Amino acid sequence: MDKGANQATVRTFVVTNRSVLAIAVPMTLAYLTTPLLGIVDTAVIGQFGDAALLGGLAAGALIFDVVFTTFNFLRSGTTGLVAQAFGRGDELEEQAVFWRAVLIAIVAGIVFAVLAPLVAIAGQWFMAADPRVSEAMGLYIRIRLLAAPFSLINYAILGYVLGRGEGGLGLMLQLVLNGINIALCILLGLELGWGVAGVAWATVTGEFVAMLLGLAIVIRRFRAAPALPRHRLLDMSAFLRMLSLNRDIMIRSFSLLAAFALFTRQGAQFGTVMLAANAVLMNFFLIAGYFLDGFATAAEQLAGRAIGARAATPFRQAVKLTLFWGFGLAGAATLILLLGGADLVALITTSEDVRAVADIYLPWAAFTALSGVLAFQMDGVFIGATWSRDMRNMMLLSFLVFSAALLILAPAFGNHGLWAALHVFLLVRGFSLLAILRLRVRTAF
């Protein structure tokens, strides 16, 4: 690509509502297929009318998320680095970032697949749930972790696509992945009666097919671009930068999942019905989160591109506009869940006991959109800018505050206190990052 053309592009780089929505709208739709998948999984198992199976699925999905979301840096870190290379007009670095992420994904994925039985045992020990819950959880983990290499490679593919701001392509890939998953979940889990095992095998198949499609698209694109020299791929300084970024994002992700793990474990101590009710409501939290993730993704790409182009004005525009749209959508999501949440609970589970308990705590889940919107948007900005150390440190601070709130509020107020501690966690995450954003902007530009 011509260097002068690149600089011209940098000078005319402007962030508008249209550029934000071009990324955020398709990715919001794409991300919503993930909690939709969670609802379908929960609804399929809920039709068996067995709270132990529902609790086992929730616990198994949590352990899976603890393992895989810890490696979410393969998506978010790749997005930030590709976006910055895109802002500089460096096509070779875009390719190099992608293949470095794929190499990490292959190694880590194979290790997780081999260690699946040990992960299942560790998860059962940590949750300390009823025997039937533990049995269902172990079965789910052992099968689903077989998809580890496919899932992690899909993270790298999506990170590359989003780093270039190609929200439409990201939507298509997520629709394929989760569409196949949902269809097979209903077929295997419900129609054929495989239950929890059917839900897990549906995920393995969906991840594999999506990986093949994504790799085919990306490799075909690279064939039409300049060839990547091997020394550029294996550039140790770039590898070390990526590993440093990934380390910080991994610590941040692990802290996030540790908070959710403590939330779920505490719910399990309140009994199987409470565990199942919280599992249903957490799907609503995920719906709200994935609504907001589309605009957080827009913040990642646009902030990263502005950092790469060293353009302060587009950076500020990206922060301002993604926050504006994020808060608007958060308010809408909260209202929708308050008005229609009870009907969704009834759709998800046939257990009257679970429905009754979930309805009591529904408002807590509905308001997570508003309490979490700033955290989501700030995460997007800091990931795109690759300010990973600040994000890591503020997440650790938030986790400590959450743990303290959990110790104080849960014993005093039961499940209400548990949900209140989650809101404290989300608010501290958002405001702590906002507090240091101004300093980072001054030093970056």
From TrEMBL:
Primary location group: membrane
Membrane topology: Multi-pass membrane protein
GO cellular component: plasma membrane
Ranges that cross the membrane: 20-40, 52-74, 97-127, 139-162, 169-190, 196-219, 239-263, 269-292, 323-348, 360-382, 394-413, 419-439
GO molecular function, one term: antiporter activity
Location in or out of the cell: Membrane
Keywords: Membrane, Transmembrane, Transmembrane helix
Keyword Magnesium on entry: no
InterPro entries: DinF-like, MATE_fam
Family: Belongs to the multi antimicrobial extrusion (MATE) (TC 2.A.66.1) family.
The protein's name: MATE family efflux transporter
Organism: Mesorhizobium sanjuanii
Lineage, opening ranks: Bacteria, Pseudomonadati, Pseudomonadota, Alphaproteobacteria, Hyphomicrobiales
